[in-house]
Amino acid sequence: MAAKRLDPKTTALLLIDLQNDALHPKGAYGRAGLACEQVSALPARLAPLADAMRKRDGWIVATHFTILEGKQGEPILTEHMRQLRPFIQRGDFQKGSWGHRLVDDLGSADLHIDKFAFSAFYMSPLEWMLRQIKVDTVMIAGLTTPVSVATTLRDAVLRDFKGIVVEDGVGAFESKQHKAALAEMASMAPVKSCAELLETMAP
């Protein structure tokens, strides 16, 4: 049976937190030694899918994990985030900085969303923007599979968007958590590889 075809004009490729501070060796995570081959390979895997979306007038939406500054420029972080990422320092994931930007390998995005929590929908304009541009389907890719990717998918489904998880376009720093999250998300939305998604957009 042929795969159900996607309409790129009503679809957004949602790139979650694929930023220099998360992926580049000189970024915040790289400096702390938080890296793995599976995560580092994400931009190269996703670039052809992003290019196909651009050629077919689809939408590329990048979310950017954003750390706001308090007095004297000290980062404002929840206690949970301080424990999870104790290496975060002043200037990391700061809006307007090099570390905050989408990695170069993925090219430009049509929309940029500052993201302050796990879900890209939480206290952000993402839902409003998707409604305005008539997007009803989100292909979710990025970091990390069990946290921001899974939380964003749940929120998308709750808001009646059609969700698709890009199987080889999501990643986590621990393989066991990554695989468990993929299996769990499969109960909520289709899980498709980049190649399968490209096939659904082929002329």
CATH hierarchy class name: Alpha Beta
Protein structure class: alpha/beta
Strand composition percent: 15-25%
Distance between the termini: 17 Å
| Helix content, binned percent | 25-40%
Which second-level CATH architecture applies?
3-Layer(aba) Sandwich
Q: What overall form do the CA principal axes indicate?
A: globular
Strand order of the largest sheet: 3-2-1-4-5-6
Can you offer a commentary on this structure?
It contains 9 helices and 6 strands. The protein has a 6-stranded parallel β-sheet with strand order 3-2-1-4-5-6, sandwiched between helices. It has helices spanning 20-23, 28-31, 37-40, 42-55, 79-84, 126-132, 145-158, 175-185, 194-201, and strands spanning 11-16, 59-65, 111-115, 137-143, 162-171, 191-192. It has a single domain (8-201), classed as Rossmann fold, CATH 3.40.50.850. β4 (137-143), α7 (145-158) and β5 (162-171) form a beta-alpha-beta unit. 40% of the residues are buried. Helix content is 35%, strand content 18%. The protein has 203 residues and is α/β, with parallel strands linked by helices.
